[in-house]
Amino acid sequence: ITQRGCIVQLPLRPNEQFYGLGLQFLSFAQRGKKKIARVNADPKFDTGDSHAPVPFYVTTEGIGILVDTSRYATFYFGDARPKPAHAVDSLDSVGGTNPDPDYTHGIRDGDSGQVTVEVPNADGVEVYLFGGPQMIDAVRRYNMFSGGGFVPPEWGLGFWYRMDARGTQRSTLALGGEFRESKIPCDVIGLETGWQTHAYSCTFEWNEDRFPDPKGFVSFAQGMNYKINLWEHAFTHPASPLFPEIAPRSGDYGVWGGLVPDFAGEPARAAFGTYHGKTFIDAGISGFKLDECDNSDYTGGWSFPECSKFPSGIDGEQMHNTFGMHYQMALWNEYRNRNQSTYNLVRSSGALAAPYPFVLYSDLYAHRDYIRALVNSGFAGLLWCPEVRDAVSEEDLIRRLQSVVFSPLAMVNGWYIVNPPWKQINRRLNNAGQLADGWQKLEARCREVIAWRMQLVPYLTAAFQRYAEEGIPPFRALVLDAPGERRLYAVDDQYMIGDRMMVAPLFAGEPSRQVVLPEGDWHDFWTGNAFKGGSQLSVPASTEKIPVYVKAGSIVPWADVGQFAGSPESRRITARVYGDGSLPFELIHDQSMMRLNWHKGKGSVTSASGYDVYAWQQLG
Ligand code: GAL
User: Does the CB atom of residue 165 touch ligand 1 within 6 A?
Assistant: First the structure.
């Protein structure tokens, strides 16, 4: 305990590497770095700032460590070291002269050292250690400690499209109709700011100029098998019907002329939640997009100050780091109380979030950083959506779309473009209504990519089932599955989905990419071509499909493509068999287990529970 707060020192082993601290965009392996667990929507430098800072990290020795604080804790990952203990007689006794500066700060490969964590303004802190033996076990236990992951509703794993912010009831339904006509599968349509009478801050009331009949609108959309998701943030406008109830339960500073609800206290959560339950959930709204629950006042934006006071007793710093989590709690409670499954978006989260049915997103847009965030999310009980908006080239659009359909939430966020990006990738021209010549060709390519998402749903669902039951992150870094392979320690642009599938996205503008194959035997998912693991492949940019590999022996269910998840087509399955098919596939559906087996060149299905496995395809 010091005047500044408290310090935790944890020993380190030589070569021990660590990962985590939440949704980091700018770095992966953390050894040798100093990081602050501080929420920020727009991290410009690799300081630790993040939409979802999580004071939890996991090491290649199979240990997970949670420092249970909502303060802006500083983590010195091996670079803060005790002073030298005694003088030496001569330089010769310690390796000789070295007139050039040693920029390693004394950290060398093979060194031990320590992790130092400083928690400001605290008389003490609880530290949880999660044992392995393997790294993945430590993460698993961390996730189970928070209640385990969850299985999204089937529609949540389909395709999502968010409307232009100026969208109306009429334009939204027209787009929904157009998707059905042009056979672009879609499950969820998201409404952006313009559905409300006032958006910054929010009134949480329908704007009846644009949506004259909200009830009719939602039920019409439902009739077309769409779910409706609503954008909002929590800052409560004085004209909102929620204002009188939230006012006494809010902080002493405002944002955008609205109240900051004291979500750390049950009364504000209950008032906010109850209103949303009665007004929206009971009216058929399937979920929300909880925007701006991070902040950006370090990067030229908006927020409430750290010295803010809240009736629950916490201050602005603590509120910042927990606002997103508490906001999620307020809304999720309403769905839980109704025994209704939901899947949502949120822009900030924190520690122990695995059970929350929310997926993170951002206004940042670097494709590579988006993939690094996805890889990092799996260390921290988080889910991440590398959403697609406009694009700098057709290739960029395709590559981004390919990644997002192999992610926790497959979404195009069209909030600032009037037309779908495949009609015009350029934002300005798109909004001017100038569609690209021959856009139908690009649309067809996008349709195919979106179809993959629909085909993947059974495999994805099975991966999420293990998240719920065993805490195994459905999307994760390669190193988590093979901490013994040092060559994977820096791989931050490839990831596993479930136990069998590995994705290595292509980035537009790069001539080719290297793919690292972990030890073992692998197959190209699309062609079945076999590869020996422990090697590297070079994939040329001309490759049409996203590079995906599966472990030899895998059986992967690949559904037929319907217009929405849960359509009759989605129940018709082709079982793709790789190599000797020795790894059966299991999925729980309608409370029974479907199992796909392959034995001596023949497939069999145990209890298909609503699925029709009508074809077996042997690949490789
Ligand atoms: C941003 C959000 C975007 C969009 C926009 C609307 O904060 O990240 O996705 O919703 O607000 O104003």
Answer: yes
Nearest ligand 1 atom, CA 347:
8
**Mean pLDDT along residues 143-147:** 98
Q: Is 118 in the pocket of ligand 1 (CB under 6 A)?
A: no
Q: Are 480 and 603 in contact (CB under 8 A)?
A: no
Compute the distance from residue 388 Cα to the ligand 1 centre, in Å. Answer: 13
**Secondary structure of 293-337 in the HEC alphabet?**
CCCCCCCCCCCCCCCCECCCCCEHHHHHHHHHHHHHHHHHHHHHH
Whether the per-residue pLDDT at 111 is higher than 70: the answer is no
pLDDT confidence of residue 79: 78
Dist CA 12 CA 242 (whole Å): 50
364 close to ligand 1 (CB < 6 Angstrom): no
* Distance (Å, whole) CA 505 – CA 494: 7
DSSP 74-132: EEEES---PPP-S--S-GGGGT----S--TTTT--TT---EEEEEEET-S--EEEEE--
Q: How confident is the model over 422-430, as a mean pLDDT?
A: 98
pTM here?
0.97
250 half-sphere exposure, CB direction, 13 A CA radius: 24
Q: How confident is the model at residue 85 (pLDDT cuts 50, 70, 90)?
A: confident
Q: Which atom of ligand 1 is nearest to the CA of 362?
A: 8
- Closest atom of ligand 1 to 415 CA is 4
pLDDT beyond 80 at 101: no
- Burial pattern 27-52, b for ≥16 Cβ within 10 A else e, equals bbbbbebbbbbbbbbbbeeebbbbbb
